[in-house]
Write a structure and sequence with these properties.
alpha+beta, Rhopdopsin 7-helix transmembrane proteins, 12 helices
């Protein structure tokens, strides 16, 4: 291998791999949230990708570089796969979700086929047709001409990336208030791999011929982590609610520790007519629920008037604790009207 410290692209990639490892350890310490395992899988896959590209830069021989490039496809396939899985699991919102069979079959088939085709590429050239150095120096990066299987892989990977992006955009469409702002942040972060890949394909940003897409996944995942940590994104109750809660006759609301509505059933929605966008908004923003604020602040009130026409309700407030952490409040409103 070439001198490690003289190979700046390899150093940058290895530093990214190390930093991804740190984010993995930090993410494992977060409270359970929808898609956490997929998120950690996304980080590990991106680390495998960046490490593979780094070792391709460090390898001197053309045959050695091609062999590393063929093996690096494991990380390249897994990264957008886990990204799509994470997006689906978070938007669906159920923490205890089995892996979708379609995802397992698709990822398993593409990995097995790509490894088989890559390791036997010299006999059929379905992945790489030719490779030659970009310069005269020893260990120079390679330029590849691609075979038919490469374009199958690219189509598959772009389909996963589009699916992940559309899931986040769907989250924007279905949410409001704080939820919408958080989904917008996620979506903007998810544009980084697209920009990196565009820069590489057009030559706009490809230093020393480096495809910065794996590094962009590190930055994307870091932004995801910061959003989790600082904005408590994944501690909010997800949009999906069970039919049982929605069918309760008594109005019910769930508030996060900041007083933001993270869930409510149909009966509670009926109290807020004509308001339609309620999830993700603070209770103090909604005139329909403002009378509850005094009760939530500890003021001694047995009942409150809510709705149009006004009806008297007796609020029951239950603290929510997840893994010994304050997760907010559940408020159930039972009718105090005399029969």
């Amino acid at each position: 291998m070439d001198d490690l410290f003289a190979n700046s692209p390899a150093m940058l990639l290895l530093a990214s791999t190390f930093c991804i490892g740190i984010v993995v350890m930090l993410a494992q310490g977060l409270p359970l949230f929808p898609g956490r395992s997929a998120f950690i899988g996304l980080l590990l896959s991106a680390a495998l990708w960046t490490a593979g590209v780094a070792f391709e830069y460090l390898e001197i021989s053309i045959d050695g570089k091609m062999r590393v490039a063929e093996l690096t496809w494991i990380g390249i396939i897994l990264t957008p796969g886990f990204w799509a899985l994470f997006s689906w699991q978070y938007v669906k919102g159920d923490i205890q979700q089995p892996l979708p069979r379609l995802w397992l079959v698709g990822q398993g088939a593409m990995l097995a086929l790509t490894l088989a085709i890559g390791l036997t590429n010299s006999s059929h050239h379905l992945l790489y047709r030719e490779a030659w150095p970009m310069g005269d120096q020893l260990g120079a990066p390679l330029t590849y001409t691609h075979g038919a299987w490469f374009y199958v892989l690219v189509t598959y990977i772009y389909a996963l990336m589009v699916a992940a992006l559309l899931l986040m955009i769907n989250g924007i469409r279905r949410s409001s208030g704080d939820y919408r702002r958080q989904y917008v942040w996620l979506t903007l972060s998810a544009l980084l791999p697209w920009l990196a890949n565009f820069g590489y394909l057009t030559g706009w940003f490809a230093p020393a011929g480096l495809d910065t897409a794996p590094i962009s996944f590190f930055f994307m995942c870091t932004l995801f982590y910061l959003t989790i940590r600082r904005r408590q994104l994944f501690n909010l109750v997800p949009m999906a609610r069970s039919a049982l809660i929605d069918a309760l006759a008594d109005p019910m609301l769930v508030l996060d520790p900041q007083g933001t509505i993270t869930d409510l059933n149909g009966a509670a929605r009926g109290l807020a007519v004509p308001e339609t966008s309620l999830i993700g908004r603070r209770l103090t923003e909604l005139a329909a629920f403002r009378p509850l604020q005094g009760v939530l602040n500890g003021e001694p009130e047995d009942s409150v008037l809510l709705g149009t026409p006004a009806r008297r309700y007796r609020p029951t407030i239950m603290p929510l604790v997840v893994q010994e952490r304050d997760a907010g409040l559940m408020v159930i409103l039972r009718s105090a009207q005399k029969p």
